[in-house]
Specification:
The chain is of the alpha/beta class. Helices cover 43% and strands 13% of the residues. Helix 3 crosses helix 11 (287-295), helix 5 packs parallel to helix 11 and helix 6 crosses helix 7. Bound molecules: pyridoxal-5'-phosphate.
């Protein structure tokens, strides 16, 4: 009657969802101020005012058919041209409009890309800690996800392990920097080392492994941290981009795939992307929001609020005695659990109203993730609970 694999996926509640439900229950019983919800990566910084203005202008300027009608399957040519120019202006990288496919956010960009590349028995590799949906997305593309461990002090990938994990079936390497859940940005030196390893593997296995750069947090960086643009370092690169976080538009589902024209068999892969989009039903992403992006291509969300949050939560927790790395980007803090079992630690935190996500599903047992895209006020009020939690482990 139904697909057992899909049933399992649909019926397994995520840990984040569990925490969210618990938070709602606790708020109803004990009041909203008793919940410090660090579970969800939902931006709390509002979308820039230019977004709303653009929506209103578009509704006034264009007739209904134009705003709400189907666009061409990969998106409006005018939108793709503007994205292509934006990439050229910012990164001095030529990705023609024809190589851009507009999607419903990074999730769709990733699923399309994985399906476009995956053949029988394909492996994709990613670096822990990683976005848990990669497992679901690779599974849906009939591929396997292999995970490379990380250095617990730097959160950088263990490159010796990476070299060993790459094999003849490796189709692609998913890189997510700034990283969810660690907030780490892979520096240029690390990127160059990753690229060298992939190039050596290409020679060894006579293959052309792709880098899939998943970058919904590209613009969310602090202290002038440099985020290398991967097509400038490796020809076989496909960028999966999203406006969910950079413009605080997660519910509007808008992003894109950019296929480097230098990619091995780029023209065929552009067509495979179109085919995968078609077969998955991901054609003509939101018409209204394609046009909003056209108008707001240079607009950015105010990241100072996230930086203020980062400084408050990082400084407060490290002062108490928690171990964590100072995030350079995104809006997550990855903290060492005070006991080996991060789920037990998260459960204990829950009793104090602190909703923090165990790192197991991110490929990092023994850590918890805090999404600090919350109000500054809530962070301030939560510190006492973090102090109490710490003291519970000192007895
Ligand atoms: N990739 C990473 C690393 C993410 O953290 C997220 C969302 O949180 C996504 C992809 C999916 O983003 P989107 O909302 O654009 O589908």
């Amino acid at each position: 009657m139904y697909n057992e694999k899909m049933y399992k996926l649909g019926s397994k509640r995520s840990v984040i969802r569990e925490l969210f439900e618990y938070g709602k229950k606790r708020a109803a019983e004990m009041g909203k101020d008793s919940v410090f919800d660090y579970s969800l990566g939902n931006p709390n910084v509002p979308a820039p005012k230019e977004i709303n203005e653009a929506i209103i202008e578009l509704l006034n300027e264009l007739d209904s058919i134009e705003v709400h009608g189907y666009t061409s399957a990969p998106g409006n040519l005018s939108t793709r041209q503007i994205i292509s120019k934006n990439i050229k202006d910012r990164f001095n990288c030529d990705i023609p409009a024809n190589n851009i496919y507009i999607t419903s956010g990074a999730a769709a960009a990733l699923t399309i890309t994985l399906n476009a590349l995956s053949t029988n028995e394909s492996d994709f590799i990613t670096f822990a800690p990683f976005f848990p949906e990669y497992k679901v997305f690779t599974g849906a593309a009939r591929a396997r996800l292999k995970v490379v461990p990380f250095n617990e002090n730097t959160f950088m990938p263990d490159l010796d392990a990476f070299e060993k994990v790459i094999g003849p079936k490796t189709k692609g390497v998913i890189i997510n920097s700034p990283n969810n859940p660690s907030g780490v940005v892979y520096d240029e030196e690390t990127i160059k080392k990753i690229v060298d390893i992939i190039k050596r593997a290409n020679e060894r296995f006579e293959t052309n492994i792709a880098i899939i750069s998943d970058e919904p947090y590209r613009e969310l960086v602090y202290d002038n941290t440099f985020v290398p643009y991967l097509p400038n370092y490796y020809d076989n690169t496909i960028v999966c981009y999203s406006y969910s976080k950079s413009l605080s538009l997660p519910g509007e589902r808008i992003g894109y795939i950019a296929v480097s024209p230098k990619l091995h068999m780029a023209d065929a892969i552009v067509l495979a992307v179109a085919g995968a989009g078609r077969s998955l039903g991901y054609v003509c992403a939101s018409s209204l929001f394609q046009r909003v992006i056209e108008k707001c291509i240079d607009v950015q969300v105010d990241i100072n609020a996230y930086k203020k949050n980062r400084d408050l939560i990082y400084n407060s927790l490290t002062k108490i005695g928690y171990h964590c790395i100072k995030p350079q980007g995104a809006f997550y803090l990855f903290v060492k659990s005070l006991e080996e079992d991060a789920t037990a630690f998260s459960d204990k935190a829950k009793t104090l109203g602190l909703l923090i996500v165990p790192g197991d599903d991110f490929g990092a047992p023994g850590f918890v993730r805090l999404a600090y895209c919350v109000s500054y006020d809530m962070i301030g009020r939560s510190i006492e609970a973090f102090q109490k939690l710490y003291e519970m482990y000192q007895q």
